[in-house]
Automatic annotation (TrEMBL):
Similarity section: Belongs to the SLC12A transporter family.
Location in or out of the cell: Membrane
Name the record gives this protein: Solute carrier family 12 member 3
Region (Disordered): 1-22, 673-711, 894-945, 957-993, 1042-1108
UniProt feature, compositional bias: Basic and acidic residues: 699-711, 914-933
Phylogenetic placement of the source organism: Eukaryota, Fungi, Dikarya, Ascomycota, Pezizomycotina
Length: 1188
């Protein structure tokens, strides 16, 4: 049976038996109230008011002592002991501040300063100096009372406020200032002893040896003595400081006491006259009287206030002495403000009393002649010597211990390499032994320098620290961070700002040369720390300021004007190993604009997705940081990829800063890998992760793909087309489809790479819009001007990036079909580039040159002089195309007919019956090709486009138009083909695309030219009364560029509106298109009109022979065009780093039919197969302008 826990009334152990034979002993301490008992992993914790003990026992007896828990009273006692050794406000801050501010300059230079500036001038300089000190002290107090202050003094306060670079650089400058001040005070103390006790110069005695090395020895002894006190610990330092303060105060207040009790006298040898308190002497010393060559002067010209202020200010600048002891204070946040302000009050009062006493008791001539006037007029010169010793010795003492603690704090923060050895401290009090020793060594070196030069640099170091401290307080205040709530309230942003300005002005007023040098040292250290220090988690005020300003200007940011358009890119990503190169490419392409990485996680369980989203967010942020990419990451979780993409596009950016170009990866049939899909196996990386990543960081980044989302199903082709349609038609974004970027050679990665060009292939796409209404027979040509110019714009932007500009040159490649159009096309393209201010090499190719085997096979029907591999590739790509099969059969029949006519028995003439059959066959072939192009619209495989601008006359609908019947008999088409032909596929029902003008206000976007085709093209045509042809690639020369003469809200540059060109152009017009052939016999000359004018013109070079079907590039369906363009680009862009070209867009609604989706993606595969990294671009907005 278990005994109750409180069952022992006599204070013995109460024991609870357990099944394992283990009992727990809980000693009851008298009447102490037990507050809690916790049982965790076999341990019961008993807490009382004053003590907490843990002891585990067993039935066999107590466990070995080494397994027991230490009595927490020991740790508590140790903490209390350490706390007892800490310093309070008086000994830790007030005493060091008072001793450091009451400088030896008071004894050695106040007489000289008073003689030159008078009471009014000296008090003015003193008030200005103390105003700087007071404002800085308020800033110090504000920062120190806003949180926990640890060791490091001013460095710690500044670094945790302004960040690593500012804190580290000013900390090192302040450290050097403290070390130099130590050496300067040691030398000053030796000079004081020499003047009083020197063998040659002594006024009191003659026992101290003089000479450079003797003085160096005495200064070294002083430094060693100070070092010994610092090594003894903070308690010894505190006691020594208290003693020195008492001596200094006695010495200082002996000055007014001497004026009261000492009799007036006059010393002819020293040239001084002591009058005691005298109004005559006071008024004689009231106003400034600047002279040249007075005792104590170190310049040969007349004194000025700039020189005098440079001497006085160092006597007031030691306000950081107490702050430097922050690591040894019991309560730094309370002690620093209190001790510093009280110290300033005492020293200001003391200085004022000394100045007024000296002015009222000594004549003006005495001040000019005797630099040691205070000691010579004092009732006891020995007291003044003790005062000089106490202040100089403490300044040296404070310089060593304060500087050592600053160096220890800097070393612990690992800002610069090689400083870790100075981060160590003693176990008992954390005294910086190694830092003290290195500080001593540096101080020993400073003794060799000129004391005046040391004093100037010390002043600059202190003023620079004042400036940065006030700046930190000012920025914290105006940053309005909610967590900046200092308990010290006697400051505001105005006082901190004034302190910053006055400190900076005082630096350059005192000594512009040394101020400039100090700033240069600070900037150098800033840059070193910026590039060498590892990232810190302190947080700094710059983030608050950036946030404040970004929010402010984002609210003011309006949608960008076309003059200032730049690509703000949203790149959908999946895995940073496989898409590392694409990310860096887009980073180069953004032109200093917004760059967002979009990531979609597909999941039905949002609760499970949240922690994974956060992990991915962290991983991608690390990748962005270490890869030096200037991007943001936007991750969303959605039930399917389509909604995920919509959410990312709609939510990316903020205010007027939103993406205007969306980049997605091309859908790949081989592994169904698209960058939109999160659950796909990554492509094998062709580039290693950034070299600046450590192994651990690289491993962390590689683990970003979590198990839960690797099980997501791969994205199907209809989802991909749905995403593409949403971007193009619903969200109206500029879209770029990337292909092959895992193989791109980024600049600088391979100097021997043959990729030396950025090739722009802005392929023209056109759609003819004809009307059967009021203006019968009138056709209009719409062009993809926005896409054309966006390709030029992106290529030009990429070429402005220095790394790309050094390694690649820009080329614009265009093509026409016939040689006669080459020079005209070159002229028009160069005119366009000139108006857009783009410098690039222009290349113009013509398809009928005979160099393109695919063109010869498809257009000319030439199968004899081509590679078998190329012929097989064309046949494989077009084997399922009805028009290609019918064209092959027609060509075969045509060749057989010509062979029969050319036999010896043949008459060589064509009978009416044969001519009729051939005419019917040609008409049937025309219907097959046109039907194939129309079917590409119906199911949604159109190479669609968005028109740039349509005139109102283009969209006037007339329901009275006539419709050509598509039900005529076709003697050439097979019965099965007639059955498969869609209803209403007549020649006039080629596109059924409604064209609607946008309002004039929407000048930033182009009008839609493609919508989803209806199942009944005939009905649609009858309703609209017009016909739109299939938008497709065109080999016609680009239209003339038109610049708007009057400045307005619309586009300033465009292609001139024009009627559609003849099917073909130049000399071959009228012959090269199957649609322009008459119904006469193929191969015979065209019919001549009654007036005798022939319809034919001289053939262009490369025009098909008369034995072939008269096709042109513009007549071909999309896949055939893609085959030809693929060979052209592949042959001309072998040495190209990246290719920009036009994206053939699908008709809206294509995603509803899987077969149509596969056909569209297959067409893109044909276009891009074997090409260099390729970016296919489509624009929905105007991106160029001619306006100033």
């Amino acid at each position: 049976m278990d005994r109750p826990l409180n069952g022992s009334a006599n204070g013995g152990d109460t024991t609870q038996e357990t099944g394992q034979g283990i009992s727990w002993s809980l000693p009851v301490l008298g009447n102490a109230r037990r507050t809690s008992i916790e049982d965790h992993h076999g341990v019961v914790r008993h807490r009382s008011r004053s003590v907490s003990r843990l002891q585990r026992t067993s039935l066999a007896g107590p466990l070995p002592a080494k397994l027991g828990f230490p009595d927490e009273r020991e740790k508590l006692a140790q903490d209390e002991g350490n706390e007892a050794q800490k310093l309070g406000s008086f000994s830790g801050v007030f005493v060091p501040t008072t001793l450091n501010v009451l400088s030896i300059l008071m004894f050695l230079r106040f007489g000289f300063l008073l003689g030159q500036s008078g009471v009014l001038g000296m008090m003015a300089m003193l008030i200005i100096s103390y105003a700087i000190d007071l404002i800085t002290a308020m800033s110090i107090s504000a920062i120190a009372t806003n949180g926990t202050v640890r060791g490091g003094g001013a460095y710690y306060l500044i670094s945790r406020s302004l960040g690593t670079e500012f804190g580290g650089s000013i900390g090192i400058v302040f450290y050097l200032g403290c070390v130099l001040n130590t050496g300067m005070n040691a030398v000053g103390l030796v000079d004081c002893f020499k003047q009083n006790f020197g063998v040659v110069s002594g006024s009191k005695s003659h026992f101290l040896y003089e000479g450079f090395w003797w003085e160096y020895l005495w200064a070294s002894i002083i430094l060693l003595l100070c070092t010994a006190i610092c090594l003894a610990g903070s308690s010894v330092f505190s006691r020594a400081s208290n003693g020195l303060l008492i001596v200094l105060l006695i010495s200082t207040f002996s000055i007014p006491l001497s004026a009261c009790i000492k009799q007036p006298f006059k010393n002819e040898r020293l040239g001084i006259e002591f009058t005691g308190f005298s109004s005559v002497s006071f008024f004689d010393n009231l106003y400034p009287r600047l002279t040249k060559g007075a005792a104590g002067s170190q310049i040969k010209r007349r004194e000025n206030f700039q020189d005098l202020f440079g001497i006085l200010f160092p006597a007031t600048s030691g306000i950081f002495a107490g702050t430097s002891m922050s690591g040894d204070l019991k309560n730094p946040s309370r002690s620093i403000p209190k001790g510093t302000l009280y110290g300033l009050a005492l020293t200001f009062s003391t200085y004022t009393i000394v100045i007024l006493t000296l002015a009222a008791s000594v004549t003006r001539e005495s001040l000019y002649r005797d630099v040691n006037i205070i000691q010579d007029t004092n009732m006891s010169g020995f007291l003044i010597v003790l005062g000089e010793f106490s202040t100089s010795f403490f300044s040296s003492l404070m310089g060593i211990i304060g500087a050592a603690k600053v160096l220890q704090a800097i070393s612990r923060d690992a800002l610069l390499p090689g400083l870790s050895i100075f981060a160590k401290g003693t176990k008992k009090n954390d005294d910086p032994i190694t830092s003290i020793l290195i500080t001593l060594a540096i101080a020993q070196i400073t003794i060799f320098f000129d004391i005046n030069q040391i004093a100037s640099f010390v002043s600059m170091a202190y003023l620079m620290t004042f400036l940065v401290t006030n700046l930190a307080c000012f920025l914290l205040k105006i940053g309005s961070a909610p967590n900046f709530r200092p308990s010290f309230h006697y400051f505001n942003s105005t006082t901190a700002f004034i302190g910053t300005i006055i400190s900076g002005a005082s630096m350059f007023f005192t000594d512009g040369v040394y101020a400039t040098g100090c700033v240069c040292v600070l900037v150098t250290l800033f840059l070193l720390i910026h590039y060498m220090a590892p990232p810190k988690t302190w947080g700094d005020v710059s983030q608050s300021l950036i946030y404040h300003q970004v929010r402010k200007y984002l609210l003011r940011l309006r949608p960008e004007h076309v003059k200032f358009w730049r690509p703000q890119i949203l790149l959908f990503v999946n895995n940073f190993e496989s898409q590392y190169k694409m990310i860096h490419f887009c980073n180069s392409l953004k032109k200093g604009a917004l760059f967002v990485l979009g990531r979609v996680l597909v999941t039905d369980d949002f609760a499970t997705a949240v922690p994974v989203v956060r992990k991915e967010q962290t991983a991608w942020n690390k990748f962005i940081e270490f890869s030096k990419v200037k991007a943001f990451i936007n991750i969303t979780a959605a039930p399917n990829i389509e909604w995920g993409v919509r959410n990312v596009v709609l939510s990316a950016g903020l205010g007027g800063m939103r993406p205007n170009v969306v980049v997605i990866d091309q859908f790949r049939k081989d592994n169904s890998d698209a960058s939109l899909e999160p659950g796909l196996p990554p492509i094998r990386p062709t580039r290693r992760m950034p070299s600046n990543l450590s192994d651990g960081e690289g491993d962390t980044l590689r683990k970003t793909r979590t198990d839960s989302f690797e099980r997501d199903p791969p994205m199907n082709i209809q989802s991909y087309l749905t995403v593409l349609e949403d971007l193009l038609f619903q969200l109206r974004m500029n879209v770029a489809v990337a292909r092959g970027f895992e193989n791109i050679e980024l600049p600088g990665t391979n100097d021997d790479s043959p990729a030396k060009f950025i090739d722009l292939w802005p392929i023209q796409m056109s759609a003819e819009i004809s009307s059967d209404g009021g203006r019968k027979g009138t056709n209009y040509l719409t062009t993809n001007f926005d896409t054309y110019t966006l390709i030029l714009q992106l290529g030009c932007i990429l070429n402005t990036v220095p790394s790309w500009k050094r390694s690649c040159s820009l080329r614009v490649a265009v093509f026409v079909e016939y040689e006669t159009d080459v020079e005209e096309e070159r002229r028009r393209v160069m005119t366009l580039l000139e108006k857009l201010r783009i410098s690039a090499e222009v290349l113009v190719f013509w398809l009928a040159s005979g160099d393109l085997q695919t063109y010869r096979i498809i257009v000319n029907g030439d199968r004899n002089n081509v590679d078998k591999a190329m012929l097989d590739a064309v046949e494989q790509a077009l084997e399922e195309e009805d028009w290609w099969n019918e064209l092959g059969r027609y060509r075969t029949t045509s060749r057989s007919s010509r062979s029969q006519r050319q036999t010896p028995t043949g008459s060589g003439s064509t009978t009416p019956r044969e001519g009729g059959r051939r005419r019917a066959g040609l008409e049937g072939l025309k219907r097959v090709i046109e039907s194939s192009r129309r079917r590409s619209i119906g199911p949604g495989v159109s190479l669609g486009m968005q028109t740039h601008r349509l005139l109102d006359s283009m969209v006037e609908y007339n329901s009275d138009g006539n419709e050509s019947s598509s039900e005529e008999s076709d003697s050439y088409l097979s019965e099965s083909e007639n059955e498969n032909e869609p209803e209403g596929d007549g020649p006039m029902a080629a596109s059924d695309v409604p064209i609607i003008n946008q309002p004039e206000e929407t000048t930033g976007q182009t009008t839609a030219a493609s919508t989803m085709a209806t199942p009944s093209p005939r009905a649609m045509f009858m309703k609209k009364g017009r016909v739109a042809s299939s938008a497709k690639f065109s080999s016609a020369p680009i239209p003339t560029t038109k610049v708007v003469s009057e400045e307005g809200t619309g586009p300033s540059i465009m292609f001139a509106d024009s009627s559609p060109p003849r099917r073909g152009s130049g000399a071959a017009a009228g012959l090269e298109s199957i649609h322009n052939c008459s119904s006469g016999t193929p191969g015979q000359p065209p019919v001549t009109s009654a007036e005798g004018d022939t319809e034919s013109q001289p053939r262009a070079s490369g025009y098909p022979s008369q034995a072939a079907v008269p096709l042109s590039f513009n007549d071909l369906p999309g896949r055939a065009q893609h085959l030809i363009l693929n060979e052209l680009i592949k042959s001309q862009s072998r040495d190209t780093a990246v290719v920009f070209t036009t994206l053939p867009t699908p008709v809206e609604g294509v995603s509803h039919d899987k077969a149509s989706c596969e056909a569209y993606v297959g067409d893109l595969e044909v276009l891009c197969d074997g090409l260099p990294p390729c970016l296919l671009v489509h624009s929905n907005s105007v991106t160029v302008t001619m306006n100033l």
